[in-house]
Design a protein that fits this description.
heterodimer; A: about 220 residues; alpha/beta; Rossmann fold; six-stranded mixed sheet; two-stranded antiparallel ribbon; 8 helices; about 25% strand; B: about 500 residues; mainly alpha; MetI-like fold; 2 domains; 21 helices; about 75% helix; globular
């Protein structure tokens, strides 16, 4: 159960409606890209979906939500705090277990930063921080991925590497993207948002980047 | 200018202080004040480190009491901080921190006697209340986002350890280190009520006119505080905390009968004990109010207001001493030394010294409070001006001071000043023990006369007054939209 069917989604800021009312149904196996101008309401929609589907989803928010004082390992490990007893988590804070160390190291390797396992998060670059938040979401391993511009700070080849990784690991996802080519390549359904409403909803095979550019 | 609320508030406080000054008892009553002051300074520059072996023991005890008291305070304060949202906890913490360390010591002395527990609790209890408040403020400021992103079903302890503590850790550590420095000062002045710390030996040397011994003690104390970064190391901390309890000294054994008597007899208002009923209690309370509480409150408030404004003026005068916008490295270094000395000396010791030299009046108290607190605030805003970049063609000299710097730092200056308002009042009350007619004087005399019931009521009144000033200070700070970091 990783798809969802939500209706009557609305959000307002300071009395002004920024989203909806709209309905959104995502089936299992759909990898949805949310596209649209900045300020169209993509981030708000991701937040709304996250609130409604409960927390049974892996979220990568735009602000990342990293604990800056902790090393990369612990920030990723936080994705599975619910699977271990308190004593195990507390001990891991001081001296992580080797099984967790090797699995998180492998994950970071897949994201192209294996050497950063023990680096404090505060001293990472923007792109590295983004990948730590992605690693945490992958490690969390929920059925649904909700990600808000997860590769905005990554250069070309790295962005492809990470998107590929996300596509492989999450069968169902909703990802806000401003890069139209990435959206077409790594998602099978494109939803265009304009002024808080769904302006486009189509399978990606049936779209070209020119169709999407009409939204901007 | 007068349209600025900060300026109007400052002028109002200045006016109150001027009126207060008219009522305050400001005088130098000693026959030869300047000669005594001269002798004292002569003593400081000719320190005698070898007069008695008691000096090193006193230093050791001072450090030991500070470590045990601050460690316990930080431990309990941390757990109180976790439940600080509950208003009974807030009130409890506000109450225990509104009572000065010396008052706590005077209370515990009555039933634990000169047992080390008296000194330890006198520091640990008020510090718990302070730590609870500041730790909870630091924890509240932590970024809530990582906590929201944790998988559902994460245990509360794990969530706290991973998503809250790490981001607060550095700030909590800095604050605790700052409090350790305060703890050393508190520990030193506990000697004035008879505990075996520096204050005890300072008082003894002073009363015998041994200014060189007193000077040696003060110099050792400054060195102790100035070298904190060298000898307080994270790795050594467990050694200190675990070792300190063994260096508190033996003291005298606790007589448990005294403890019981204190709670069941001593602090019960005497009319109730003697069966005089409600009317007896009313007239007892009335007498206490008119003869002791009201004069005590009046003098405490007057002295606080005068000292507060004097602190502000001194802080504004002293911050250029360490500001890199003025003068050269030589003057700044000596400015630093002066400010470190002024803020490392507890108000109580400064007031004690000045009272010995000038005779009893409010003047030594005002100068002591203003020097100590003014140096603290002057240091903080002076450091702040070092972060200000002026345009290359900015005016220099007094024009730079009055046009470029003071307007820029004035708001944070006021924030610090109002933050310290409550601290100044707490100290003002306690200075009464030295013979100025503030609340502490009446508390101390009640204890001397073995009227613990009256002393307790007066201490409660003092605590209430502090809580009131704290609330008023917070109200003014929020009205003027002033912010401070807790480390002041």
């Amino acid at each position: 159960m990783s798809g969802f069917d939500l209706s009557g989604l609305t959000a307002s800021f300071g009395g002004e409606r920024v989203i909806g009312p709209l309905s959104l149904k995502v089936n299992d196996g759909e990898q949805v890209a949310l596209v649209g101008k900045s300020g169209a309401g993509k981030s708000t929609l991701i937040r709304l979906v996250h609130e409604h589907v409960g927390r049974e989803s892996s979220l990568v928010p735009q602000e990342l939500g990293l604990v800056n004082a902790l090393p990369v390992f612990h920030n990723v490990f936080m994705g599975q705090l619910d699977r271990h007893p308190t004593w195990y988590n507390t001990l891991s804070l001081i001296r992580p277990f080797s099984a967790d160390r090797s699995s998180i190291k492998a994950l970071l390797k897949a994201l192209g930063m294996p050497e950063k396992l023990w680096t404090p998060t505060a001293s990472l670059s923007g792109g590295q921080r983004q990948r730590v938040a992605i690693a945490r979401a992958i490690y969390r391993n929920a059925g649904l991925l909700l990600a808000d511009e997860p590769v905005s700070a990554l250069d070309g080849p790295l962005a492809h590497l990470v998107m590929n990784e996300l596509k492989k690991r999450f069968a169902t996802s909703v990802i806000a993207l401003h890069d139209v080519d990435l959206a077409l390549k790594y998602c099978n359904r494109i939803i265009g948002i304009q002024d808080g409403q769904v302006a486009l909803d189509e399978h990606s095979e049936r779209l070209t980047s020119a169709d999407i550019m009409a939204l901007y | 200018m007068f349209s600025y609320p900060t300026v109007r508030t400052s002028l109002a406080f200045l006016a109150i202080a001027v009126v207060g000054l008219a009522f305050a008892d400001i005088a130098i009553t000693a026959a030869n004040p300047w000669r005594d002051l001269g002798n004292f300074f002569l003593g400081v520059i000719t320190p005698n480190f070898f007069s008695s072996e008691g000096l090193l023991t006193a230093l050791l005890r001072t450090v030991a009491f500070a470590f045990v008291g601050v460690a316990l305070g930080s431990f309990f304060g941390f757990f109180l901080a976790l439940v600080y949202r509950a208003w009974p906890v807030r009130i409890f913490c506000a109450f225990i921190r509104a009572i000065h360390e010396l008052f706590w010591a005077l209370i515990f002395l009555q039933f634990f006697g000169f047992h080390p527990l008296t000194g330890v609790l006198a520091i640990a209890i008020p510090y718990s209340g302070i730590f609870a408040k500041v730790y909870s403020e630091i924890l509240d400021e932590a970024d809530p986002e990582p906590g929201r992103l944790l998988p559902p079903g994460t245990g509360r302890i794990a969530a706290f350890l991973y998503a809250r503590i790490p981001d607060c850790w550095a700030q909590m550590r800095t604050y605790t280190a700052y409090r350790l420095e305060c703890g050393l000062r508190s520990s030193a002045i506990l000697g004035f009520v008879g505990l075996p710390t520096l204050g005890f030996y300072l008082e003894a040397s002073f009363s015998q006119g041994l200014y060189s011994d007193a000077g040696a003690m003060l110099i050792l104390f400054y060195v102790l505080i100035a070298t904190i970064p060298l000898w307080v190391r994270p790795k050594l901390l467990p050694v200190y905390v675990l070792g300190a309890p063994f260096f508190l000294g033996e003291g005298l054994p606790i007589v448990w009968g005294n403890v019981e008597r204190f709670f069941t007899e001593d602090i019960i208002p005497s009319p109730l004990k003697d069966g005089e009923g409600l009317s007896g209690l009313m007239s007892w309370a009335g007498d206490l109010m008119v003869e002791q509480a009201l004069p005590g409150i009046w003098n405490t408030v007057v002295l606080t207001q005068v000292a507060l404004v004097a602190t502000g003026i001194l802080a504004l005068l002293m911050f250029p001493l360490i500001s890199k916008h003025f003068g050269g490295p030589v003057r700044r270094t000596s400015g630093h030394v002066f400010l470190v000395v002024a803020r490392s000396t507890p108000e109580y010791i400064l007031a004690y010294i000045l009272l010995q030299l000038w005779g009893p009046s409010m003047l030594p108290a005002v100068i002591a409070l203003a020097l100590h607190n003014g140096a603290i605030i002057g240091h903080l805003i002076g450091r702040q001006t070092n972060g200000i970049r002026l345009r290359p063609d900015a005016v220099t000299g007094f024009g730079r001071y009055s046009w470029e710097l003071v307007p820029r730092i004035y708001r944070s200056f006021l924030a610090f000043l109002f933050y310290r308002w409550e601290i100044i009042m707490r100290e003002t009350a306690i200075l009464g023990i030295l013979g100025i007619y503030t609340l502490g004087f009446y508390v101390d005399s009640a204890i001397q006369n073995i009227q613990f019931d009256k002393a307790m009521v007066l201490i409660l009144i003092t605590a209430g007054l502090n809580i009131g000033i704290d609330a008023l200070g917070r109200y003014i700070r929020s009205k003027l939209a002033l912010q401070t970091m807790p480390t002041c």
